[in-house]
Amino acid sequence: MPITPEQQAEIDAQRATPRQTLRAVSEGMEAHLYNAYPVLDHGFVRVIDYMGDDSAICQAARVSYGKGTKSVQNDEGLIRYLMRHWHSTPFEMCELKLHVKLPVFVARQWIRHRTANVNEYSARYSILDREFYIPQPDQLAAQSVINNQGRGEALTGAEAERVLEILKGDAARSYDHYEEMISDDGKQGLARELARMNLPANIYTQWYWKVDLHNLLHFLRLRADSHAQYEIRVYADEICKLVADWVPFAYKAFEDYRMGGAALSAGALDCVRRMLKGEEVTAENCGMSAREWRELQEVLEG
């Protein structure tokens, strides 16, 4: 269960007390503010605060007074130009603060993006809840035989059941020992900061994560990609929906030029030019490695 009835009541109370402001407001993001959107079995993503909108990007690019806009069409065209030519600074003028509940092993992958401000729930001061990520059966997969960091075919039948039982049993047993170690019922009890070392990597943690739009889009380009690990990709997919409503012009440009576009090396671009001239370009005469040639073919074939 991602949130409790008490937490939902708190969210309802926050949404029931709007405040007047002179600052730029994104109506799309206002609809999402404070709401918790479930991810995985116990996780969620919710917007705590944001700054700026599409017009703020244009205002920064033009360094102008007021909204900084000439027309909606001009704003959209400017944002697409900025995205197309990798002018990133204006996108840094918008910021987003998220409250995320996620498994520890996902958090450790997420934190590799070192361009955000993070404050995580402390297991030194507080006791973690008995909540663990247990994959759905269709997400249990064997190691890929062609990719050292990816998944292969899904486990089935008795093998899938065996793995699920191990995951559930180990998580429950580790938490039982965690509770036993910190208990002060007739014992000294181990310090929480030490007892937490025994908890499994699939236990849930929470954090506030604040990032500017430029670095957020970089995060989404990598983590919402089909090659990203499923458990972090579903969080990125949920965040994409929020960003699309927050800064629709910027997100559409991001979809076109980053998510849907492709960067070509000088060698790959030369191959494409040769193809356009009618020359037969093959793996043997392309001048690239076998892997580069294969990747170019994937881009061209879609």
TrEMBL record:
Q: Pathway involvement?
A: Pyrimidine metabolism; dTTP biosynthesis
Q: Which domain of life is it from?
A: Bacteria
Sites binding FAD sit at 89, 112-114, 120, 212-214, 218
Which cofactors must be present for this protein to function? FAD
MF terms (GO), sorted A to Z: flavin adenine dinucleotide binding; NADPH binding; thymidylate synthase (FAD) activity; thymidylate synthase activity
Query: Which Pfam family is one of those matched by this entry?
Result: Thy1
A biological-process GO annotation: dTTP biosynthetic process
UniProt entry keywords in alphabetical sequence: FAD, Flavoprotein, Methyltransferase, NADP, Nucleotide biosynthesis, Transferase
Q: Which CDD domains match?
A: ThyX
InterPro entries named among the record's database cross-references:
Thymidylate_synthase_ThyX, Thymidylate_synthase_ThyX_sf
Q: How is the cofactor bound?
A: Binds 4 FAD per tetramer. Each FAD binding site is formed by three monomers.
Membrane-crossing residue ranges in chain numbering: none
**Which amino acid positions bind dUMP, per UniProt?**
109-112, 120-124, 196, 223
Active-site residues per Swiss-Prot or TrEMBL entry? 223 (involved in ionization of n3 of dump, leading to its activation)
Q: Which reaction does it catalyse?
A: dUMP + (6R)-5,10-methylene-5,6,7,8-tetrahydrofolate + NADPH + H(+) = dTMP + (6S)-5,6,7,8-tetrahydrofolate + NADP(+)
Q: What Enzyme Commission number(s) apply to this enzyme?
A: 2.1.1.148
Biological role = Catalyzes the reductive methylation of 2'-deoxyuridine-5'-monophosphate (dUMP) to 2'-deoxythymidine-5'-monophosphate (dTMP) while utilizing 5,10-methylenetetrahydrofolate (mTHF) as the methyl donor, and NADPH and FADH(2) as the reductant.
Outline the subunit composition: Homotetramer.
Which protein, by its recorded name, is this? Answer: Flavin-dependent thymidylate synthase
* Record organism: Thalassovita mediterranea
Gene expressing this chain: thyX
